[in-house]
Amino acid sequence: xxxxxxxxxxxxxxxxxxxxxxxxxxxxxxxxxxxxxxxxxxxxxxxxxxxxxxxxxxxxxxxxxxxxxxxxxxxxxxxxxxxxxxxxxxxxxxxxxxxxxxxxxxxxxxxxxxxxxxxxxxxxxxxxxxxxxxxxxxxxxxxxxxxxxxxxxxxxxxxxxxxxxxxxxxxxxxxxxxxxxxxxxxxxxxxxxxxxxxxxxxxxxxxxxxxxxxxxxxxxxxxxxxxxxxxxxxxxxxxxxxxxxxxxxxxxxxxxxxxxxxxxxxxxxxxxxxxxxxxxxxxxxxxxxxxxxxxxxxxxxxxxxxxxxxxxxxxxxxxxxxxxxxxxxxxxxxxxxxxxxxxxxxxxxxxxxxxxxxxxxxxxxxxxxxxxxxxxxxxxxxxxxxx
Length: 387
Hints:
Elements: H1 2-15, H2 25-54, H3 60-98, H4 103-120, H5 122-134, H6 138-161, H7 168-206, H8 208-214, H9 224-238, H10 240-248, E1 261-266, E2 277-279, E3 285-287, E4 289-297, E5 301-310, E6 316-326, E7 330-337, E8 346-352, E9 356-360, H11 365-386
Antiparallel strand pairs: 1-4, 2-3, 4-5, 5-6, 7-8, 8-9
Helix pairs in contact: 1-2, 1-5, 2-3, 2-5, 2-6, 4-9, 5-7, 6-7
């Protein structure tokens, strides 16, 4: 009963991992151990009581009562673990984060919480936990698990034999027989279960994008809009425009005609296998890579300073990259919607004879005005260059 309930629970966890992602690895293992022993313990206690009563009252109901109660308690326990407890744990986590006084630290913790689901992928954790209990190697794992099950049944039979209740000796014998069957059964299915678990594990690892974007109703503890606002505030505090001026060694008088602009958005890098991809409740795809592109217009050239942030585990600065385009080399400067961008959002497209530079941005009235001003400035410069 125990190993069967464990397999059933593992399958349920795999199907509902988007509900219980908040649990830690240790918690998952503890829960799996509980469900391994819970049905057997309940059935043992109820069997002793029912057998004692049935000796004096022949009743079919009494004979099946232990099984019914075990099943009901098992279902109630799983429902509590899957649907009720995770919300309470997540709420408690959020309260602790909101209580952090330092704004930067609180922002980091909020971003961590948003992508924590993607870091854990509870399906992998549940599968690994079951593998850890059932399998310590291909064949040895089945042997260990089988012996554990046999020992559990034998111990339960011994305890029941000590109760002194009518029929306790029969229960002890029955438990011993069930232990032998469990041992053989687990050893037989262990290799098959191991192969199945490995296949499921590989499928999860190879379909990271699909598994992360499939569920768009996950309660992450941080709303999509809140994450956007946290990142926007952090970019403002970092004063990226001024940092870009220093990195590009520009004179502020050179960029006085058109104010520089910073365009920031989530970046979908298909070549990055470690990229987290989360489809929010607003159907917008957010990733664990955040790019900020600072554009500066001078009379001779367009200068760009690009900043990269890894937000999979907080807001972590990864580095900067600078580009410079002379006006005579640029064949097109424009903004477009859709295209190759993952959310169909607007982006700046800079084309030269040998390259295309594109950066997406979150649209705001202020940014739109800046981009229109840049486009106008570019057209006027091109007319002068043609003449």
